[in-house]
């Protein structure tokens, strides 16, 4: 296992094949984006960490949903567009909604995932320039959420998505990056490991690593997200490491 340099089927490949890498041959394929909408009411916004974790879980939920799976006669209604999306760059965009906007977004085909208080609705991929009007008008900015207190230590038996401590990202950007990391971990797992994660309701934590820990994680062989650099940060920046216990165990044995 290397970094995020993987093709859509999860096999290791050169950096040019990365779904997040700059100047990828995936650019030649039709481009899609996975929309995620976070519910943010002015009076009661969710905590930042809760929103990040819920977004990551939302990505896993749609990847595992029966509508996203199958081929031929057993093909789910979202399966084809999910394949097309994963054959190109793995783009995710997080937008925010409240009030009537949230209700309109919730009426579109998708899945709402809840955290402690956060709500994130994930939708099947749409063409890069073909967003539904109910989602296209939603704002990308305004997702600068905060944690009211320091998050607890992560569960050592559950996956942890470790954020790079040297990068300052808005909550929306970090939500998308956490979703990327969850997806890379999912691609690396066996069917049995995926089933176990699904049965645990995709339990995971998102935390910012300490500087020394991050340096170790970045070269550990665990999946690393390298951002394409479209927004906020430089191309090729390592943003998140997906530390799944099954993958860590595999590395120790390897």
Q: How would you describe this structure to a colleague?
A:
- With 254 residues, this protein is α+β, with helices and mostly antiparallel strands.
- Helices cover 32% and strands 17% of the residues.
- The protein contains 8 helices and 9 strands.
- The chain has helices at 48-64, 79-87, 99-106, 133-136, 171-188, 191-199, 211-218, 245-253; strands spanning 32-39, 91-97, 111-114, 119-122, 126-127, 160-163, 205-208, 224-226, 238-243.
- Strands 1, 2, 3, 4 and 5 form a 5-stranded mixed β-sheet that branches. A 4-stranded mixed β-sheet has the order 7-6-9-8, sandwiched between helices.
- α1 packs parallel to α5 (171-188).
- The N and C termini lie close together (10 Å).
- The model is unreliable at 1-18 (pLDDT under 50).
What global shape is seen?
globular
User: What percentage of amino acids are in beta strands?
Assistant: 15-25%
Compute the number of helices: 8
Helical percent range? Answer: 25-40%
Instruction: Please give the number of β-strands.
Output: 9
Main structural class: alpha+beta
């Amino acid at each position: 296992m290397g970094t995020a340099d993987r093709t859509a089927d999860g096999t290791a490949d050169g950096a040019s094949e990365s779904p997040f890498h700059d100047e990828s041959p995936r650019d030649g394929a039709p481009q899609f984006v996975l929309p995620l909408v976070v519910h943010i009411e002015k009076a009661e916004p969710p905590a930042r960490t809760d929103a990040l974790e819920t977004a990551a879980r939302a990505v896993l939920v749609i990847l595992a949903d029966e509508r996203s799976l199958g081929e031929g006669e057993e093909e789910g209604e979202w399966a084809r567009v999910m394949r097309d999306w994963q054959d190109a760059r793995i783009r995710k965009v997080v937008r925010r909604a409240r009030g009537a906007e949230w209700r309109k977004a919730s009426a579109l085909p998708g899945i709402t995932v809840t955290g402690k208080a956060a709500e994130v609705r994930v939708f099947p991929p749409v063409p890069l320039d073909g967003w539904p009007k109910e989602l296209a008008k939603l704002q990308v900015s305004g997702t600068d959420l905060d944690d009211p207190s320091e998050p607890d230590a992560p569960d050592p038996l559950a996956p942890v998505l470790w954020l790079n401590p040297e990068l300052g990202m808005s909550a929306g950007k970090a939500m998308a990056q956490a979703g990327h990391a969850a997806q890379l971990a999912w691609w690396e797992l066996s069917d049995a490991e995926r089933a176990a994660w699904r049965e645990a309701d995709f339990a995971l934590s998102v935390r910012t690593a300490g500087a020394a820990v991050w340096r170790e994680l970045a070269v550990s062989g665990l999946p690393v997200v390298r951002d394409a650099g479209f927004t906020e940060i430089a191309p090729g920046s390592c943003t998140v490491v997906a530390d799944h216990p099954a993958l860590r165990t595999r590395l120790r044995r390897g």
